[in-house]
Amino acid sequence: MATSASNYKKTYPISWEQLHRDSKALAWRLLGHDPFKGIIAITRGGLVPAAIIARELDIHLVDTICISSYNWKDKKGNAEMLKTFEGDGEGWLLIDDLVDTGRTAQIVREMVPKAHFATVYAKPAGRPAVDTYITEVSQDTWILFPWDTESQFVTPLVGQDKK
Ligand SMILES: O=P(O)(O)OC[C@H]1O[C@H](OP(=O)(O)OP(=O)(O)O)[C@H](O)[C@@H]1O
């Protein structure tokens, strides 16, 4: 994500089950498309959805585009391209978990302009950059992916009142 947590007003927690269900829904939608040569997963968020979609579409050829956005999230630096992809992406399916501001999408689109770009979740600012997505989420929502979170104890409501 290219913006800081302070820009978000809501959270949207996603369980492993829901992520699996939403990724399968994306695979269903892509089933109508001509068969793909392979999948390009955008690291790291695209890795899990790519695995689920590869299974559903019976795709065994999986490559990556590796981007690190440290120092980039608050627009303080540039995204670091750790691994690119050979070719223009024609016939390939490009997968990410989320398109938020669309900055990542812009970079990968320039690299593989002919790939079909699909994400599980999409926010309005980035939505025009993707060809297929499943769930739209508002721009001010922070999506809590299952790999970024864990269950923990929370104080009962009454206890919170006594603080
Ligand atoms: O549309 P954008 O504003 O560019 O945001 C979307 C990108 O942000 C997330 O990656 P992140 O930078 O958190 O890296 P990670 O997947 O390695 O955790 C997500 O996986 C997308 O690649």
TrEMBL record:
Concerning CDD domains, the annotation shows: PRTases_typeI
Keywords for this protein: Cell membrane, Glycosyltransferase, Magnesium, Membrane, Metal-binding, Purine salvage, Transferase
Q: Which GO terms describe its biological process?
A: GMP salvage; purine ribonucleoside salvage; XMP salvage
Every copy of the Phosphoribosyltransferase domain together lies at 15-152
A Pfam family annotated for this chain is Pribosyltran
According to the lineage, what is the superkingdom? Bacteria
Q: Which is one GO molecular function term here?
A: metal ion binding
Q: Which organism is it from?
A: Desulfopila aestuarii DSM 18488
InterPro entries assigned to the protein according to its UniProt record, in alphabetical order: PRTase-like (IPR029057), PRTase_dom (IPR000836), Xanthine_Guanine_PRibTrfase (IPR023747)
Q: Which HAMAP family match?
A: XGPRT (MF_01903)
Q: What is the name of the protein in this document?
A: Xanthine phosphoribosyltransferase
